[in-house]
Amino acid sequence: MTATSTTTPEAGPTALHSPVIDWFDQHARDLPWRRPEAGAWGVMVSEFMLQQTPVNRVLPVYEEWLARWPRPADLAAEAPGEAVRAWGRLGYPRRALRLHGAAAAIAERHGGDVPKDHHQLLALPGVGEYTAAAVASFAYGQRHAVLDTNVRRVFARAVSGTQYPPNATTAAERKLARTLLPQDDTTASRWAAATMELGALVCTARTPSCGGCPIADLCAWRGAGSPAHEGPPRRGQTYAGTDRQVRGKLLAVLRESHRPVERAVLDAVWHDPEQRGRALTGLLTDGLVERLPDGRYRLPGTV
């Protein structure tokens, strides 16, 4: 077996199922969106929030969000700017607008209940293939390949024998995920959650804990001697000094104010007028900020 081949264990893909799911049964974190009372809406909220954001940052915002908006219709009834305000410092705030749009569509098209059908989930604003599969699997126990970064890394190492998956999800990865998917719905949904947790806690990006991995003996990457990544350099995302940081500072001012803000107040948050103007223009274009006729600024739809 080479580090570049894509194969399943000699015993077949089912050899991975039991050890991973058994490990999950013993080690799964008690997260609020995994509890029965979370429902499909709680699962959907968590999936929007967890994109590119660690669990410890999501937890307090998630709890506050569900306490304020326990159903999609509750969020849909508010201005989209209130969703942006409640999003706080989770980052990538366009997710808040997309979640608000999804809630409005759920209230309008589905009687306020998150749909079960995968195609109906995909038709919601801001819901892509991953989120639709995750909600269908985790909330409704359906059989779908759920491919987030953690799952893709587990499959890359355990099956394909490479340290990291490609930068973007490929057709080959989707095919592999379908090959590995258990046949019955219950086991498939459990497998989806278990592989995600394994990538988050054990098969981590920088320092995998192979000694605690339930499939270490079946891992193609480990069996090949854990070869180093041969693809393009993997660069971490920078934040300090970027337009993202400036956008965050501008949004922070607007989140903290419950009345429209003068341009001079926004100008005070960043020293570079060109970068500050570019960041503000981007926020306006993205619909995260509105400019009133009198020249003041506010979160969209807020008073």
From TrEMBL:
Its cofactor is [4Fe-4S] cluster. It comes from Streptomyces carpaticus. Coiled coil: none annotated. This is Adenine DNA glycosylase. Its EC number is 3.2.2.31. The keyword S-adenosyl-L-methionine does not apply. The keyword Transmembrane does not apply. Residues 49-201 form the HhH-GPD domain. It is an enzyme of class 3 (hydrolase).
